[in-house]
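In full, the data.
>
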Amino acid sequence: MQLMAIDNHKRKLLKSSAAALALSPWLTACSSSSLQREKAALVSCSRTANGHFSAVVADSNGYPIYSIPLPERGHGVAISPNGELGVAFARRPGNYMQLFNIETGKSYAITASSPDRYFYGHGVFSSDGMTLYTTEGEKKTSQGIIGVYQLRDHQLIKVNEFSGFGIGPHEVICVDDTTLAIGVGGVHTDGRTPLNLETMQPALVYLSTESGKVVERVGLADHKLSIRHLSQTHDGRVLCGQQYRGEPEDGVPLVAIHQRGGALIPLKAEPEEWLRFNHYIASIAVLGTHVVATSPRGNCYGVWDLETNQLTEIASLVDASGVVVEQSGLNSPQWHISSGAGKVVNRTESGIVTSHQTNVMWDNHWNRIPLK
């Protein structure tokens, strides 16, 4: 019975993907031969004005090269270390992940969640590209699970699960070859409706990939700061962005940094400055000694100096979404920052800013494709 339920759900997802491909003229435009000659540099999920969803492979300026239709709204994308494969994850509480070829735009098998599980929007490949770690959870309890999948003949086969680390995991990253860092939101939900705001227990958790055991766990003083999105500095510290689940008038710190073995330290800004981010951080990326964090709900992004942990600037950007760092190629090292309204901002660490408009409604995250 369970297998039948999964198969029926998978057929529904495939039909949705086919409908998106057939009905969206923008998807067809993305696959034109002139665009395909550009070099793939960025990947993100996106939305279209007529209500369809896709993963988009773009050049370094954010202009689309390929699009991969998705059955429902996507969120994060995992990219294999060699830059060949991508996996787009459904927005939480999601029920699919889509494997695709970044170089050609070809879709492979879609993986549906089991009837009693959600995907939580993120995953990451191991350094050898053969294992994918995903954030998942039980529907009835929101108990967190790290799904462990092996890549076999362009299919993702679940081979293991890690659990017992908390409720409502969101982003997962590899901090080294044997350790995962997980942003555990702590929120038990029915769909997207929170049920335990007074008792939630968010944490930044480090997990062994060999044993699945928790090797370190740290939290914040305010238990209503749900830890969501992660990034890593060049010296191995982990940054986390929060969603605040408390009172609307509270201006609480939404970005924190952690050195292994120490406390989780909030970055600095005035309460009224934190309120500009409207209680939500979507994406984080580090360049040199500075970090950029975006807020689509606040229509802005912030820049912090990691030598002082002090906010240096808040810049307005409508529906500020993904941010990623480009450190190679012809351009100077810079952040690429995307907008759900299609704008792309390029910013150097010294503060030189350029921007241009694309026809893509970018979603929350961007990923950089490794250069070959």
